[in-house]
Amino acid sequence: MPDRTGQPAAVTIDGDGWVCPVPLRDAPNIVMGHGSGGAMSGELIEHLFLPAFGAAAANGLGDSAVVDIGGSRLAFTTDSFVVKPTVFPGGTIGDLAVNGTVNDLAVAGAHPRVLSTAFILEEGTPLAEIAHVAEAMGAAARAAGVHLVTGDTKVVDAGHGDGIFVNTTGLGSLAPGVDIRPQRVRPGDVVLISGEIGVHGIAVLSCREGLEFGTTVHSDTAPLHEVTAALLATCDVHMMRDPTRGGVAATVNEVARAANVGVRLEENTLPVPAAVSDACGLLGLDPLYVANEGKLVAFVAPGDADRALAALRSHPLGRQAVAVGECVAEHPGVVAARTGLGGTRIVDLPASEQLPRIC
Amino acid sequence: MPDRTGQPAAVTIDGDGWVCPVPLRDAPNIVMGHGSGGAMSGELIEHLFLPAFGAAAANGLGDSAVVDIGGSRLAFTTDSFVVKPTVFPGGTIGDLAVNGTVNDLAVAGAHPRVLSTAFILEEGTPLAEIAHVAEAMGAAARAAGVHLVTGDTKVVDAGHGDGIFVNTTGLGSLAPGVDIRPQRVRPGDVVLISGEIGVHGIAVLSCREGLEFGTTVHSDTAPLHEVTAALLATCDVHMMRDPTRGGVAATVNEVARAANVGVRLEENTLPVPAAVSDACGLLGLDPLYVANEGKLVAFVAPGDADRALAALRSHPLGRQAVAVGECVAEHPGVVAARTGLGGTRIVDLPASEQLPRIC
Q: Is the pLDDT of residue B310 over 90?
């Protein structure tokens, strides 16, 4: 869930009023956009879950929480996965779930340790499909060095689920001194991306709705814990996040709002592979809003940027890392991108879904 | 998930051969019984998930795991809830989820600390229903003294979910010396139940399928952490479990198998309320197999039984606690019940679902 703390409901830049586009009160029922990871997801948290949970809620219900138990600093994170189809080019819902939770721990600065797995299976789902997904989970967990230690399986009647839903919740250990929070981001900080963007969303879309783009795009699902460890060993990282639902646009917006800084992206530095660019052109999508499952965005002090980039590039999963922008004191909470033509456009928090059920 | 460790596939008692009634190979697709918490759930874990996860699996994927991180002993547990309807007499899917996860931590001997919450919502679900459920979660969490610290929301298209599914995953701290494991159960141990059985399952069933039983049965959903704390302060508890899916029968069978002891229950000591008894008689159900959501089964040494019973009865949620049987060296892995008529019947692990989607 996006962190919505510390941000007024409306900000203004260059005379344009920005207002949360879909107030909760205008949507009496859940719509797909509430699961987008964008503004509507934030509305749901801010105006429904947080008030309903009341004093039981802590940490703004963020993507992950740091908890102190018995003298240990732990990172704790949960994600349910409903991607459709469950098997797509480059991965399955199983490795996606394991890598997604490993990555939420990794970008919290933690060393991933154990995961729980909870399945909601639809009656009639072939056991062979479940076994295939479970094998992918096992392989992903072994690759990431995490153990699957506890689980649960529920079955719902046919027509009341959709094959396989899986929740993975993870626990990681935090080294002393690691302090990854959007509130640490300051004007001047450099924004780094660990590699090519938009790949996962296009990979899932390409095998759905009968769409074909000539080239097969494979999901970038991958565990980032070694990349984050390399980064943390190099410099004092202020903030990291994996830009999944809502893409880089959602992630950078959430950080900008929570940090109360502006962000200026340089569009021509964004690493968009040709196949993603082509597919986005065809479909009218913006690669900044398309989900990634094996990339991270990091915010570091300007003096650390070169060392951080070198650390990212030292790992195969960060080889194509680049700096894509910087934080500024102007337009706090707002992300702007300098276009290839020299103009500037606002990169809003996405309101709702471009691509539903991609994770 | 039931613990299936250390138990041969078939056991024999009194000349009757017991064989797992539904081998996985005979079910090419998922059926409701795979979510029963009974023999078919065990088959799925043993023959599908554990082999597929391979070396990544640890702890036999039990209901909860004890993990050591940074010198802290923690209990970790996950559960997804798919109960239908989401609001029933005495509770909602929200408090059921919080209490269910609190109880899984409590019966592991842990002090519940933090929970994650992950929703899978169906497009079109009224926000008012979600708010009602979330308020119940907040109230249950406050009552249990746990914080909801991280979350996730996914939305699936109409017709591919069923209103509200929620996963709660919990983390608790374990005091030094607490060691709750079925392997600690020995012949002679006394079996205690904290109160009346079968209430939750009948409560859910009573408001579904248009059934009415004259008296409204209210779910017993409740947090048991204070009851378990009172018990642990009194004696060295060998094993505890909350008898949810599959009821007392499933729980006692799982413990008997993992401990390799026999269990003899005294049927006339089982606390079955009249309304549950009546409903079960009408529907052909056995109260031993009906789910509970606010009860625990404990195994203690015979010399501790009186103290343990007194400790249970000292708490409002354990006021009706009773001893219902004992562990024996004979028929290891098998549960037998002495009936009111003086005969003995085998209380098998349920094969599949009596009552689907009750949690």
A: yes
Where is B101: in which H helix or E strand? Answer: helix B93-107
Above 60 in pLDDT, residue B329?
yes
- State the ipTM, two decimals: 0.92
Residues 6+ apart with CB under 8 A from A189: A238, A261, A299, A300, A301, A302, A326, A327
CA dist., res. A18 & res. A8, Å (int): 11
| B148: closest chain A residue by CA | A57
Assigned CATH topology for domain B66-178: 60s Ribosomal Protein L30; Chain: A; (3.30.1330)
Confidence of residue B350 (pLDDT cuts 50, 70, 90): confident
C-alpha span between B313 and B323 (Å, rounded): 12
Does A68 lie at the interface with B, CB-CB under 8 angstroms? no
A11 Ramachandran zone, left/alpha/beta (phi>0; psi -120 to 50): beta
For B74, the enclosing helix (H) or strand (E) is: strand B72-81
Kindly give, in sequence order, each residue whose CB lies less than 8 Å from that of residue B118, ignoring residues fewer than 6 positions away. Answer: A78, A79, A80, A167, A169, B151, B152, B153, B154, B166, B167, B168, B169
CA pair distance A30, A24, nearest whole angstrom = 10
Contact residues, B window 156-195, toward A, CB-based 8 Å cutoff? 156-157, 159-162, 165, 167, 169, 171, 173
Tens digits of per-residue pLDDT, B137-165?
A: 999 999 999 999 999 999 999 999 999 99
Spell out the domain ranges in chain B. 66-178, 182-346
Kindly state the DSSP code that residue B155 receives in the 8-state scheme.
E
pLDDT (average), residues B334-358? 90
| Interval A178-197: pLDDT, tens | 999 999 999 999 999 999 99
| B71 closest CB neighbour out of A44, A62, A71 | A71
**Nearest residue on chain A to B122, alpha-carbon basis:** A30
Which residue out of A45, A167, A241, A242 would a mutagenesis test of the B interface target, given it has the greatest number of B Cβ atoms within 10 Å? A167
Which CATH number, 3.90.650.10, 2.60.40.10, 3.30.70.260, 3.40.50.150, labels domain B182-346? 3.90.650.10
Return the CATH fold of A63-178: 60s Ribosomal Protein L30; Chain: A; (3.30.1330)
Q: Is there a contact between A77 and B159 if contact means CB atoms under 8 Å apart?
A: no
pLDDT tier for residue A277 given thresholds of 50, 70 and 90: very high
CB contact under 8 A, B131 and A167: no
Mean of pLDDT values over B86-102: 97
pLDDT > 80? residue B187: yes
Amino acid at A17: G
Confidence label for A1 from pLDDT (cuts 50, 70 and 90): very low
Contacts of B85 in chain A (CB under 8 A): none
What is the spatial distance between Cα A172 and Cα A77, in angstroms, rounded to a whole number? 9
